[in-house]
Design a protein that fits this description.
0% strand, 222 residues, mainly alpha, elongated
Length: 222
């Protein structure tokens, strides 16, 4: 094994992405429940129950994101010993955790604090996107060293696809908040957009996990 630190680090990042995927699913369900609770389509008792459930989902998702973030930081630090690009992702992951966890405290809010939640979420997503870019650049550089042109091409294609998906999630986050604050959007449209956002988020993690899995196998074999 020519790159032992990168191999161990990428394995940790791979596991962290799986935890993040589960957290995204839990958080997405919580967001949908929150929108249903404030939509006015349910009675007061049901709305209160949904808000409590939303809080529980958000707390669990926040804890899982924090755990995944710590695992990622350790993984990036290890992998950075074999490829410097990984080190550039550490601060991005750290800030992503801070902004995402901070956003979770305003998850059930509307008005000013609702927009604070959206802004914090967007900044956290931007930090996560930058970390992903450095991750793919690092894996692509290692693929060159491992003489794997197929992985190099795959990495470049992944980079383009993931950036597009991230931009789409940014736009959806904005319109979901706009819809939650305005009567111009119906509650069903906001819920539909929330479901679409969850799908894009899941796709993001699946693409990353797939590429990380291939990279992990490559590093173990080289």
């Amino acid at each position: 094994m020519k790159f032992p630190y990168a191999s161990k680090g990428v394995s940790k990042i791979f596991n962290a992405e799986i935890i993040s995927l589960i957290a995204a699913l839990i958080g997405g369900v919580g967001m949908v429940l929150s929108l249903v609770a404030v939509s006015g389509n349910v009675d007061k008792s049901t709305s209160e129950t949904l808000i409590i459930a939303t809080g529980a989902f958000v707390i669990v998702a926040g804890i899982m994101i924090a755990v995944a973030g710590i695992m990622s930081i350790v993984g990036y630090f290890q992998a950075g010993k074999d490829e410097v690009s990984f080190k550039k992702a550490i601060l991005c992951v750290l800030f992503s955790i801070l902004f995402t966890v901070a956003a979770s405290f305003f998850a059930n809010q509307t008005g000013f604090f609702g927009w604070i939640c959206t802004i914090l979420t967007l900044v956290g997503n931007i930090c996560n996107m930058l970390a992903t870019i450095f991750l793919i650049l690092g894996l692509t550089a290692l693929s060159v060293k491992c003489n794997r042109p197929d992985m190099v091409k795959h990495g470049k294609d992944m980079l383009t696809t993931l950036v597009i998906l991230y931009i789409l999630t940014f736009v959806l986050n904005f319109f979901i908040r706009l819809g939650a604050e305005s009567t111009a959007f119906g509650s069903s449209i906001v819920e539909w957009l929330s479901g679409l956002l969850l799908c894009f988020t899941v796709f993001l993690y699946i693409f990353q996990i797939y590429f990380l899995g291939k990279a992990k196998k490559m590093l173990k074999e080289y």
